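Support request from a user on the community tier.

User writes: "When I paste my structure tokens into the form, the page sometimes reloads and wipes my input. The last time it worked, I copied everything first. Here is what I submitted, just in case something in the input itself triggers the reload:"
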């Protein structure tokens, strides 16, 4: 808890205060506490903190971020059905928010993670390809290279799991050596 309090105190500085909405400022200690629970492997605790925090937040953008964090936590808890339900609710709400899919955790990624946890590899391939097709044109140039490091290895693995070894090998050949699975 001390780390969360120190982080929250750093956001209480005058030069930072004006840059944050009151929702974000008030919820920051809980966000940090939830991330600490993640790092300790306490996903149930993180989910409880995020659910409590989501009930307090009024800003649509802040609430969207908390919802996406809750989806990620449900995936970590191996609850793909609950994660997909929350993710689908997010899709409905995010239709009213501009660039809803342009974040680092697009709405397709939880679909892919949930399908992977259920061994539904064709759905994983479809979700990851849809994410790449839809978001690549909107990504700033500085983030486009990250696809080859962060997305392509997951897509190659999913292709291999579906039996498309040639497609997987071709995609892996195009990834840098510092990619993440």
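"...and here is what came back when it finally went through:"
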């Amino acid at each position: 808890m001390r780390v969360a309090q120190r982080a929250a105190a750093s956001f209480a500085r005058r030069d930072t205060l004006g840059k944050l909405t009151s929702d974000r400022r008030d919820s920051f200690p809980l966000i940090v506490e939830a991330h600490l629970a993640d790092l300790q492997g306490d996903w149930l605790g993180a989910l409880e903190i995020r659910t409590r925090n989501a009930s307090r937040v009024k800003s649509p953008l802040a609430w969207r971020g908390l919802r996406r964090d809750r989806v990620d936590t449900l995936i970590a808890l191996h609850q793909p059905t609950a994660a997909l339900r929350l993710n689908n609710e997010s899709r409905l709400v995010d239709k009213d928010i501009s660039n809803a899919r342009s974040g680092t955790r697009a709405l397709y990624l939880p679909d892919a993670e949930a399908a992977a946890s259920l061994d539904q590899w064709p759905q994983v391939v479809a979700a990851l390809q849809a994410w790449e097709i839809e978001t690549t044109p909107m990504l700033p140039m500085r983030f486009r290279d990250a696809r080859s490091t962060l997305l392509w290895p997951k897509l190659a693995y999913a292709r291999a799991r579906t039996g498309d070894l040639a497609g997987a090998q071709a995609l892996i050949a195009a990834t840098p050596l510092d990619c993440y699975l």
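Agent notes: The reload is a front-end session timeout and is unrelated to the input. Residues 22-39 form the longest helix (18 residues). Residues 98-104 have pLDDT under 50 and may be disordered. Escalated to web team.
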